[in-house]
Specification:
The chain is built from 10 helices and 6 strands; from the N terminus they run αααββααβαβααββαα. It is an alpha/beta fold and 253 residues long. The structure holds uracil (URA).
């Protein structure tokens, strides 16, 4: 392979990876290809192939399409993200925090005002309650678990993230979970649970039962912000957390 071809192949691979990150997983047949031929046909040019013939990843490549091999590398790979419009209103991206080898990953919806200011997940009032659940309830330090969100940038006025914002961000969450390799995921609230499980089933029916996200057991429970408004639901959350502890062989005494 000549130097030119190698560099072209590298550019093409980067472009395909970018498309995958942007949510493109297929190129419709018949799409005009710059230069005349349709996707799937071979355009003019020495040995060139149309994009549909290009494999987006090596065998064994991560499902996220991201290549970082640790969380720090993943944060760098995300960079000063502008992949969706949430970037316009954020103060900073909130990647995630905690133990890179955690047995439990907690996934929330997206950063709120306090998280956007501090750059860390679950540091506001809902975060204090989550910290109590972990430290007072589970009797482990918050630093022992890993905490992140479905979207990494604050939705303006704390609105729900839009589907295209979730799609743009999902490779990052997938790679975080691939890298941490937790034994259990706890989905905090309706939005995280429904997004991870790709369902519209209400959280009241999802919680309290085991599900699976990409091969990892997942327990949905109510969001801590919901508990701040409805403290009576703490009992259900504690039941859900006890199931998590039981599964991990932790004592819930
Ligand atoms: N709510 C979330 O879902 N995530 C946070 O990080 C904070 C509040």
């Amino acid at each position: 392979m000549s130097q030119d071809t190698r560099s072209l192949a590298r550019d093409l691979a980067a472009h395909v990876q970018w498309m995958a990150l942007s949510g493109v997983d297929e190129i419709p047949p018949g799409l005009p290809w710059p230069g005349g031929a349709a996707a799937g046909e071979v355009p003019d040019g020495e040995g060139a192939s149309a994009p549909a013939a290009v494999d987006a990843g090596d065998a064994g490549a991560p499902a996220s399409g991201l290549v970082a091999t640790d969380l720090g590398g993943l944060r760098s790979e995300i960079g000063d993200c502008k992949r969706c419009r949430l970037s316009a209103a954020r103060t900073q991206l909130v990647f995630g925090s905690g133990n890179p080898d955690a047995r439990i990953v907690f996934v929330g919806e997206g950063p709120g005002r306090d998280e956007d200011r501090q750059g860390l997940p679950f540091v506001g009032r809902a975060g204090e309650l989550l910290t109590d659940i972990i430290q007072k309830g589970m009797k482990i330090d918050r630093s022992e678990v890993y905490i992140c969100n479905v979207v990494k940038c604050r939705p303006p006025d704390n609105r729900n993230p839009e589907p295209e914002e979730v799609d743009a961000c999902s490779p990052f969450l997938i790679r975080q979970i691939e890298l941490v390799q937790p034994e259990v995921i706890v989905a905090l609230g309706k939005f995280a649970a429904q997004t991870l499980l790709q369902t519209t089933t209400p959280i009241t029916r999802l919680r309290g039962r085991w599900h699976e996200y990409r091969g990892v057991p997942l327990m949905p429970t109510f969001h801590p912000a919901h508990l701040l408004r409805n403290p009576a639901f703490k009992r259900e959350v504690w039941e859900d957390i006890k199931q998590v502890m039981q599964r991990l062989g932790m004592s819930a005494a």
